[in-house]
Design a protein that fits this description.
heterodimer, A: about 270 residues, mainly alpha, two-stranded antiparallel sheet, 7 strands, globular, B: about 210 residues, about 50% helix
Amino acid sequence: MIAMRVPLVAGALAAALSFVAAAQDETQKGIERYRELLSEGNPAELWEARGEELWKAKRGPKNASLEQCDLGLGRGVVKGAFAQMPRYFPDTDRVQDVESRIVTCMVAVQGFTPEEAMKNPFSTPDRPSDLEALASYVAAASRGMKLDAPLRHPKEVEAFRVGEQLFYRRAGPHDFACVSCHGENGKRIRRQDLPKLNDPKEARRIFTTWPAYRVSQGTVRTMQHRLYDCYWQMRHPQLSYVSEASIGLMVYMAKYANGGTINAPGLKR
Amino acid sequence: MHMRTALLLIVAVGLAAGCATRLSDDETRQRAEHAFREGFAKGNPAVLARVQQQDEAQALCSQYHNEPTGDVAGRIEQSQTATIRFPASGKLMGDWRRGEKIAQDGYGMRFTDRDTKRPNGGNCYNCHQIAPQEISFGTVGPSLFRFGKLRGNGETVQKYVYGKIYNPQATVACSNMPRFGHNAVLSEEQITHLVALLLDPDSPVNK
């Protein structure tokens, strides 16, 4: 039923989006109407379903399924795992977010090389991304739970402090840091609201709704993509996928977002 | 006895490990710099060097979370004032129509912007209200609507606006606004067009 509805609604929306530049206010209203329309379903459900299939399929040189993957709550436990990420994993001795951990499992469990596992983190119109689907599936399995990213292990605390440094680190030809746009309440870029990401009220609303189906891009995007895209706008070079820097920033946000209710994959502009 | 010793040992080792991994502020900064270098490792070496190596203002504003103490702010404002270059022609007011195009244009210096012949935009509307016809404006910076109408367009105001766009940290240390002239995002001539957008009586900003 969702599969039938989504292309229709998405088509109508694509037409609506052609007016974006001319009438941003109208677009915002359009998105709100779209959200109502989709109250029973978000296009991201297609990504969740594909993610679940991928999760359970025997793949890779070891012909194994990701059901053997330990997402932090023990092998094979998907439910609730996303609500406690990013977290420290003793086997890799690293703090990992959901995408980083999926990559680890594709390598360790399924036998892919890291390059193979990470070759397509962000989809293009003609090339879907397995990682976007897998992250959607894992996130959805924590929907309705409270975010409780642990900040107890020394490496988790260290990741937070690294993230805090990077949040304020100004660089490049425009002197931008994360805080340039996300340090005050009630600000906008053009018509787009900017969350203050170290304000628990804002962080709980924002951090818990990624990954999200992005209407303007017609696909699910992940938090890794959100950071990559922010740095693109900040006139920085390309942020490396699942880098320590990216995960530090996520732990920084997670600290303020803890206690918020997971409603991912979300639905965003 | 053996059990108790073993337990105490475990606790002691645990505490030592905890202390050993607790980083000082300097170590945290170094750790973050390392993570930054690793996180941004792909692309044009000149662009990479430019983000890895912060200049004095960037480093101080990062360190003070954009709230420098009085003496640090003074030091930044002094050094940044010294960077401002005015056009050799002495003409600070260009063409407001070209200014409006620059204010709308966000092109330039993103890692996907391959056309280096195309001039960079200023993207001013992302953060400021300017001409009233453009309703899609940001609010990170103050509204500039009626800027010239409220302040006039004499030489002092022209110099102030030009300097503000060239290097806003000359007047406000750690301002959020990019140093468009100092960092060569915009040319001197482009800045004069933006001065005109704000100050020319014919500009829609002042109608």
